[in-house]
Amino acid sequence: MTISTANTLGKFIVPTLSAGNFAIGMGAFVVIGILEPVTKTYAISSADAGWMMTSYAIAYAVGSPIGVALTGTLQRRTVLLAGMMIFAVASLLSAGADSLLTLCGYRVLAAFGAGIFTPVSAGVALSSGDPANQGRDLSRVLFGLTLSQVMGVPVGSFLGYTYGWPVAFLLVTTLSVICALLIYHLVPRKMPFQVNTLTTLGRSLLDWRSLLSVLFTASFLGAIYILFTYFAPLLETRMGYQRNGVTIVLLAFGIGAVIGNFLGGKLSDRFGPFETLCFLCVMQIIALFFLGFLPFSGFILVILVVLWSMFGWSFMVAQQSRLVRQTPERQNVVLSLNAASVYLGAAIGSAIGGALIDPFGLDSLAWFAGLFMLFALIHLVVSEKLFQRFAAA
Predict the structure, then answer these.
(1) Residue 384: CB partners within 8 Å, gap ≥ 6?
(2) Dist CA 320 CA 338 (whole Å)
(3) Over 90: is that where the pLDDT of 326 sits?
(4) pLDDT by residue (tens digit) across 72-114?
(5) 88: enclosing H helix or E strand
(6) Is 50 helix (H, G, I), strand (E, B) or coil?
(7) Which of 256, 253, 259, 248 shows the shortest CA–CA distance to 298?
(8) Whole-prediction pTM
(9) Domains located in the chain, CATH noted
(10) How far apart are CA 376 and CA 31, in angstroms?
(11) How far apart are CA 277 and CA 13, in angstroms?
């Protein structure tokens, strides 16, 4: 391969990884939009259907750091391909699941594939970019995850309501296979990367200061998922929305996610990750408080959902930048632990939300989520102060 050809292919690495994260994001979060069609297929409650998200989240939280550590000496293209193909196969199997238990099992398999792909793609961006622009580089690779909120989840929701929820998983399968082909042809076989092993993972788990910082991710996103996992049923019961209404609101959420992805990178680079995260926690508390007053006009709801999503998705770049600055020598494993915490938070939030529905009702979820976000803010401040104190000692 000539130098000019290598440079040309290099320009496509970030867009290719972003496309892969689009497929991952759609497959991970499409269940939010098809929760109600699934409940009708299996004659189950919304809380039971929430296990589609919870099982995926738990599997990701456990499997991602182990998977990244076990593949830490392999070439990055090989790992990316393996993760994407596992995800594609699991999505295809999900489309044919004959019970909720079987579907959750296939979701666990999909989580293992996603848990390898996303943190490795972020590590590739950090290894090949300018340290001064970490926020920008991360936001570009993770743009696919946010774009999946704009297009993937609403489209999946529409297909699920119109043609049946298995069609949404078939679409995810198709996109995943296409992305795997792009990775094979456009990502170089050999790239410089930071080698990590199970020993590196062990050191990261024993570093309680870093681990406490990582777990803030679970606190922040756990608060959001108390409400978000059951957002479609809430829109149906409180706003009277069906397919079109739910799809439009999820589209608004996706638009906010895209804005937040770029906003988080800019805020983090300009003001610092910690300051950005404090601001986002406060804005989340405010947004969740107002979402507890449904129903109100559709226009106000859309504006509020855009803001809620925007200040939620601004979080990821800032948190990843914060963690890499704290432990640059273990960035790949720390990023995988952070990715695991994303889904640990989703699992915790989904489980808490499901447990709250029967005794308190869907209406209460936004306010409980706001209280949990207050805990996340306290967690952030305490973890940052402890890390700085012991790092200076």
Answers:
(1) 213, 274
(2) 7
(3) no
(4) 788 888 999 999 999 999 999 999 999 999 999 999 999 999 9
(5) helix 76-95
(6) coil
(7) 248
(8) 0.74
(9) 3-392 (1.20.1250.20)
(10) 25
(11) 29
